[in-house]
Each structure stands twice: as structure tokens, then as C-alpha cells.
Amino acid sequence: MIPDWASERADMVERQLRRRGIRDERVLRAMGTIPRQEFVPLEMRVASYKDEPVGIGHGQTISQPYMTALMAQELELSGDETVLEIGAGSGYAAAVLGELAKRVVAIELVPALAALAERNLHKIGLGRNVTILAGDGSQGYPELAPYNGISVAAAAPDVPGRLLEQLADGGRLVIPVGDFQDQELRVIIRKGSEFMTRVSTHCRFVPLRGHYGFR
Ligand code: SAH
To answer: Ligand 1: which residue has its CA nearest to atom 11?
Structure first.
């Protein structure tokens, strides 16, 4: 039987996102529109709308839908922003952010995944405002800073100071911080030279590698 992706997607939005407290209507709309199955490898496609991360090769995963939604919601985007994503993976979260912000730059350490993310975005004809770059994103991307939002899709041992420096005034950094098993999703808001931190939830991401990641 051919899966009914549209109804699986609507179900995901209702059960996994709305009922669990995702309230940002723009986030709900983006995730209710973007064909997530196009970002999942063919052999894993039946799991596209499941309430869990899905393997995308190279030992990496596309995050659980709820986590992508929560991170996007925490950035409080209205459409005018420049956003940096670290850990583009399949390109799915970058596509979601592309619907919510003016411009998105997404960096991916594994070159084959950077190429995959680029292909996936092209395939769905979305993300014309999204640039995928291959490289180490743990140091951010100062060339296009400052960013109104930075979303880190891999767990860091600590908050890299280089990322804080690249936040615009009023900008927000969303980043999982902890060890391999357990992390807290921190939301850091810049007000001038001050940074306010709040813990959004506990989570478990794949480790951030590179200069400010795990060695
Ligand atoms: N946002 C992705 C999920 C990514 S999983 C999606 O929606 O599909 C985390 C990704 O971070 C992995 O692809 C991993 O290769 C990448 N990564 C790990 N360390 C990195 C680093 N230092 N710079 C850039 N990407 C990194």
C-alpha cells in the first residue's frame, strides 16, 4: 500500500506537536507542509512521521519531529531573521527554518551529508533562502554573522564562546549541552553584552564534533 503521507503528517502535527505544547502556528504550518519523507532514506521512509529520530547514514539521524519543532519554536522567529543551523544532516530542519526566517545558513561536517541536504532541498523545491555549507560548524560561521538565531542540532560539551559572539543583540542560541547520554536543551538570549540562559527540556542528540565538540 502506498502510504498516505499527508494524513501521516497531519497526525504528527496534531499528536506529537500540538498536543505536546508546540504553539507557534508558523512552526506547525511549516512542519504540516514540508514532506519529511523526502529527507529520509528510501529504506527508512515508513518511519518518516514516527515519534523518534531516524537514521540518515554516516551514524547520524534526522531528529525526532518534536525536537525540531521545539528548537524552531524556541528561536521565536517572525520571518525577518538570519539563522545559522549547525548540523544540517538531511536538511529537514534547515527546510523548516527556511520557512520561518528570511535567510538560513546550515553547516554540516560530513561532506556526503552536506551534499544530501542540498539535494533534498532542491528536490522539494523549497529552501531557496537556505545555503548549505560543508565544514566544522562548532565555531559558527563568522562571515555571515551576526545571527538572530543559532540552532545546534548536535550535543556540545559546553556552549562555544564563538557562537555567543556571533549572536545579534536580542538573538537566541538553542543548543543541547551535556554528555553522550543526557543533555539539557539550553536557550540563551543575548541582551547587549549579557546572556540569559534557560533550560527548555532534557534531550539526547548525537555528539557535536569539530573544534568545540567532543574529541
Ligand atoms: N538537523 C538535522 C539533524 C542533524 S543530526 C536534520 O534535520 O536532519 C546532527 C548533525 O550534526 C549530523 O549530521 C552531524 O554530522 C553534524 N555535526 C556534528 N558535528 C558537527 C560540526 N562540528 N559541524 C557541523 N555539523 C556537525
So the answer is: 87
* Domains in the chain: boundaries: 5-203
Cα–Cα distance measured from residue 82 to residue 98, given in angstroms and rounded to the nearest whole number: 10
Query: What are the pLDDT digits (tens) for 53-111?
Result: 999 999 999 999 999 999 999 999 999 999 999 999 999 999 999 999 999 999 999 99
- Among 68, 107, 109, 118, residue to substitute to test ligand 1 (most atoms within 8 Å of Cβ): 109
What is the structure's pLDDT at 81?
A: 98
Assign residue 34 a region: left if phi > 0, alpha if psi is -120 to 50, beta otherwise?
A: beta
| Alpha-carbon span 212 to 161, nearest angstrom | 9
d(CA 173, CA 127): 21
Predicted pLDDT of residue 127? 85
Residue with CA closest to ligand 1 atom 2: 89
CATH number of 5-203: 3.40.50.150
Our answer on whether the CB atom of 67 is closer than 6 Å to any ligand 1 atom is no
Q: List the catalytic residue out of 7, 48, 63, 78.
A: 63
Hey, is 45 helix, strand or coil? Answer: helix
Which residues in the chain come in under a pLDDT of 70? none
Q: How far is the CA of 2 from the centre of ligand 1 (A)?
A: 31
Q: How far apart are CA 191 and CA 212, in angstroms?
A: 24
